[in-house]
Amino acid sequence: MIGPWLLSIALITVFILLLWRRQRQKERRFIKRLGMQLDNQIKARAPLELPWVPVAFYDLVNSLEKLLQALPPPVGKDKLTGLANRVGLKRSVTALMPLQQGTMVLLDIYRFRYVNDLFGFAFGDQLLKQMADRLLGLQHGPRLLARMNEDEFLLYFEQQQTEEDLHRLRGRLQVPFDIDGTPVSIRIQMGYLDLHAHHTNLSLMLRRLDLALKKARNSRDLLAGYQTGEDSIQMRELEIINSLPKALKTGQLYLVYQAKEEVNSGLCRQVEALIRWEHPKFGAISPAEFIPLAEYSGMIGLVSHWALEQVMLQQRKWRSGGFKVRIALNLSAQDLNNGCMLQEIERQLQEYQLPGDVLAIEITESSLMADLEQAIKILERLRQLDIRLAIDDFGTGHSSLAYLKNLPVDEVKIDKAFNEELLSNSNAKHIMRASIQMAKSLGFEVTVEGVESMALKQVLISMGADQLQGDIVAKPKTAPELEYWYAKHCIHAKTAG
Fold this sequence. Notes:
This protein is α/β, with parallel strands linked by helices. The protein has three domains: 47 residues; 143 residues, Alpha-Beta Plaits, CATH 3.30.70; 250 residues, Alpha-Beta Barrel (TIM Barrel), CATH 3.20.20.450. Helix content is 52%, strand content 17%. It is built from 19 helices and 16 strands. It has an eight-stranded mixed barrel with strand order 8-9-11-12-13-14-15-16. A hairpin with a 7-residue loop joins strand 8 and strand 9. Helix 4 crosses helix 5 and helix 11 runs parallel beside helix 13. The longest helix has 43 residues. The relative contact order is 0.06. The C terminus is likely disordered. Keywords: Membrane, Transmembrane, Transmembrane helix. This is Diguanylate cyclase/phosphodiesterase.
C-alpha cells in the first residue's frame, strides 16, 4: 500500500517542480521584456505596454509606471502632444539651414484661455492633443511641426504658401472638434513668413513670425504676414518698454486733466486724468502706444500706482487751496483683478488724509469681463469708500442688460467711436439714442466722450446725455492751466445759470 502513495507524492512533486520551473521561465521572460521596454519607454516617455504581469511583480510595475509619468519630457519633445517643442524645432531648423525657400507659419487658437476657464485644463489639453493630431494628418503637410508654447504651433512648408493656401489651411483646422461628446468651435490666428523674401538667422526668423502673429491677432481675418521694416517697430516697442521704469522715476511721464461738463448746469465737477510721456529719444509717445505695451509686459501696475499717487498729491494740493473737483483715473484689467491695487488706494487715501469722493475709477468693459465675479467684489469695496465708478468705452465690448444691472457703478462713458457718423447717419443716431436711454433706464449717468463740435454737442444734449467730454468742452490741460480755465468757466456757467 505504501508504494502507490509514494509514487503519487513523487509525481505531484515532479509536477510542482515543473510548474515552478515553467513559472520561473515566464518570470525570466517577463523581466527580460520589462527591461527592453523600460529602455524604449524612458526614451519615448510612454507608458509600459505589458500584456501580463506576474503577481509578484505588481508593486514593482506600479512603481515603475509612476516613475515614468513623473519623468520630464525628453529634450526637444513636447510631453502633451508628442510633437517637437521649441528646442527640438530649433535643432531641426538648424540642420536645414540656410532656409531660403518655403513658408513658416505660426498659429494659435483665438481666446484659448477661455476654453480652459470654461471647461477646465484637462479639457483644454484634449483640445490641444486633437489639434496636434489634426496638424499631423494634413495632406501635403509641413516638413516640420512643433508646439512652441501653450496653444502656439509652428509649421514649416518647403513649398511657398499663398494667402489663399493659408486660408484653406485655416478652414481645415477650424472644423469643430468633439471633446468627450462636447462640440467645440474655434478660430485660428495665423502669422506667416515668406522665407524667399525674408530668410535670415533662426532667431530673427522666429521673432518675425511672432510679429506676424501679433499683427494677425489685431487684424479682421486673423491672418497676417511679416512685412519688411516691421523689425524696427518691435525694436521701438522694446525700447519703450525697457525705458518705462526709469521714465516713471525721472519725471518723463506727467498727468494732464480733461474736464467733463454737466449738461444741466454747465459746471465741471469732474476731470479725467490722462497720462503723457515726453521721451528723450522718441519725443511725445501716445498713451495708445505705451499703455498696451505696459499691459502686455506686465508693467501696467507700475504705471497705475504712479498715476494714483500723482492724483493723490494733486488732490491734496487742490483741496488745501479750496479747489474741489473729482479726478477720474483709468484702471486696467490687471489692476482690477489685483487685490494690491485696492489696498494701495485705501492706503493712499489714508496717508494723504483724503476722502474717497476725490476719486473716480473708470474701468473698460473688457476689464470687467476678464473676471466679472472678482471685479464686482472690488467695485463694491471701492463704492464703500465713496469712490465714484464708471464703465469706460461703453458699447465697444460686452454690453448687455444682463450684466449691467448687477454692476455697482454710477456712470457709463459712451465711446467716441459712436460719434463718427452721428451727424450724417440715421442708424448711428438710433444706436446712440438707444445706448443713452438704456444706460439711464438702469440708473446710470451718461457721459459721451470725443465731443469735438458744437453741432455734435447739441445733438447729444437733445438725446439726454448728462455729461460731455471732448475738445469742444475743454482740451486736456496741466493742473495750473485747468485751475485758470476752471475759474473762468465756472464763473461764466454760474452767471449764465
